[in-house]
Amino acid sequence: MIPRLDNLNPVQSLYLEFFNQLTARGFGGDVNPDYANRVVLATDNSIYQVLPQGVVYPKQTSDLVMIARLVSEERFKEVVLAPRGGGTGTNGQSLTDGVVVDISRHMNQILEINAEEGWVRVQTGVVKDQLNAALKPHGLFFAPELSTSNRATIGGMINTDASGQGSCLYGKTRDHVLALNSVFLDGSEWQSEPLSDTELGTVKQRNDKVGEVHRLVDAIHRENRQLISDVFPPLNRCLTGYDLAHIRTEEGLFDLNSVLCGAEGSLAFITEAKLNVLPIPEYAALVNIKYAGFQDSLEDAKQILGCGPTSVETIDSKVLSLAMQDIVWQTVEDYFPQDAAEPEIKGINLVEYTAASQAELEAGVARLTTYLDEVNQQPAKSFGYSVVYGGAEISKVWAMRKKAVGLLGNAKGQQRPIPFVEDTAVPPENLAPFIAEFRALLDQHGLAYGMFGHVDAGVLHVRPAMDMKDEVDEALVRTVTDGVVALTQKYNGLLWGEHGKGVRSEYAPAFFGELYPQLQRLKAGFDPFNQLNPGKIATPAGSGAQLLKIDEVATRGQQDRLIPLAARDEYSQAMFCNGNGACYNYDPKDAMCPSWKVTRERKHSPKGRSSLVREWLKQLAVHNTDPVAEHQKVRSSNFLFSLPARLLNSLLLKRGQYDFNHEVYEAMQGCLSCKSCVAQCPIKVNVPDFRARFLELYYGRYMRPAKDYLLAGLEPLLPTLAKWPGLYNTLTQRPAMRAVTARLLGLIDNPAMSPESLAGQLEAQAVELATVSRIARLNQADRARTVILVQDAFTSHFEVPLVLDVIELLQRLGFNVLLAPFRPNGKPLHVHGFMKGFEKAADRNTEMLKGLQGTGVPLVGIDPAMTLTYRQEYRDNPDRDQIEVQLLQEWLAGQSDALKGFAADYNLDAGEFVLLAHCTEKTSAAVSMKGWQQIFSDCGQALTQAATGCCGMSGTYGHEAENADTSAGIYKMSWSGVVNAPENRDRLVATGYSCRSQVKRQDQQQIPHPLQMLLSLSR
Question: 735-745 and 706-721 are packed helices; what angle lies between their axes, rounded to 10 degrees?
Answer without folding.
Answer: 140
